[in-house]
Structures are given as C-alpha cells and as structure tokens.
Write a structure and sequence with these properties.
about 220 residues
Length: about 220
C-alpha cells in the first residue's frame, strides 16, 4: 500500500512539473483549472475564516487570470486574512491525505468539494465566470464519482498539486493578504509573516507525509 502511494506521488510530481516546466502553452492550459481550484480554496479559506469568527461572506470572485477576492462582513480580520493562504494549504493536505489513505472517504470528500463549489457559485455569486467555472468543475467531479473508478487518483492529484502550487507561489500569491495582515499584526513586517506562513505550509506537508507513511492502512 505504502509503495503504491509513493509511486503515485512520483508519477503526479512528474506530470505536474513536466506540464509546468516543459508543457508550454498546452501545459498551462491543462493546469489552468488546477490554478483556479487553488484560487477557489484560497478564497474559501477567507470565507470560512470569517464564518468561524462570527462574520459572514458577501461574495467570492475567481478571475480569469487566476486571481480572486472575497468580500466579508465582520469577523476577525487577522484570521480571515490568514485563512486564505494557510486555509488552502490545509485543504490541499486534507484532500491529499484522504485520497492516499482513506479510500472509503474519497467519494464523500469529492462530493463535498463539488457541493462547496455549487454553494459558492449560487449563494456567494459575484460573476458569470466564477459561477461558470465552479459549475463546470463540480460537474467534472460528479462525473468522476459516478462514472469512473479514478476518484482516489483525482483527489490525490488535486491535493498534491494544490500544496505544490501554494509553496511555489508563496512569494506572489499571498502578497496582498500579507500587506494587510501586517497592518493588523504589527509585531512583524509583511516579509517576516511571508516566511512564517511558508514555514507553516511546509510543516503541514511534512507532517502529512509522515502520517502517510507511518499510520496503518485504511479501507
């Protein structure tokens, strides 16, 4: 079981880096939905940060260029801002771990991911592009659940590529969040928070990998 997980990880890494580094225009097009998924998880992290601290989400937008924003009302500003980068790192690790180790939860988690996209598309509607992307991605997930036996591989790939994408783009992705976070948490400058957030994301991935190869297999 553990050897099969390692083989899958190696294959997924080769696919991802092959497409990103050598795939050219076609590689970017193939990875484009993954980039938008990372943006969705990032914005969802902001939204959940608002909800768990007593606030609410007004709208969520995912833009064609891969950027996005979440408008919230109330809640704890520091947790909301931190929830984007670190929240998406947590989501990615959860998807990856469940895909690799808890096969009985693969379809329910994929269904939950699709449901969160549909809910965001309809309830936190902000643009036609956002809603269209979320509907199409959720439809693809549901087709995978109902019509294929590749749910595990899909969940692992989505989780792993999300983690890698976040780590690779730490210097760019959370920049606007970091500047605002530093205004709230003035004890450290934005540059220091950037590396602290990166350290946390790396630590989460390291812990995840240790759990993958130390815990017993699940069905």
């Amino acid at each position: 079981m553990k050897s099969s997980i390692l083989i899958r990880i190696i294959v997924f890494l080769l696919i991802y880096f092959g497409l990103r580094q050598y795939g050219g225009v076609m590689g970017n097009k193939i990875l484009y939905p993954i980039n938008l998924l990372v943006t969705f998880l990032h914005e969802l992290g902001h939204g959940l940060g608002a909800i768990i601290t007593g606030g609410e989400v007004d709208r969520i937008q995912i833009s064609q260029d891969g950027s996005g924003y979440t408008a919230t009302i109330g809640g704890n500003r520091a947790i909301i801002l931190m929830g984007g980068y670190l929240g998406s790192a947590i989501f990615g690790n959860i998807l990856f771990y469940i895909g690799a180790r808890v096969q009985s939860l693969v379809k329910p988690v994929l269904a939950l991911l699709a449901a969160s996209m549909l809910f965001t598309a309809m309830y936190w509607f902000n643009s036609i592009f956002t809603t269209g992307f979320l509907f199409l991605f959720s439809a693809a997930i549901l087709l995978i659940i109902w019509k294929t036996n590749f749910g595990r591989e899909v969940l692992m790939f989505l989780g792993l590529t999300t983690i890698i994408y976040i780590i690779q783009d730490f210097n760019v992705g959370p920049s606007s969040d970091l500047s605002r976070y530093a205004e709230v948490m003035v004890i450290l400058p934005a540059s220091a928070w950037k590396y602290l957030w990166l350290f946390i994301a790396l630590a989460l991935f390291f812990i995840n990998m240790r759990l993958l190869f130390k815990t017993p297999d699940y069905e």
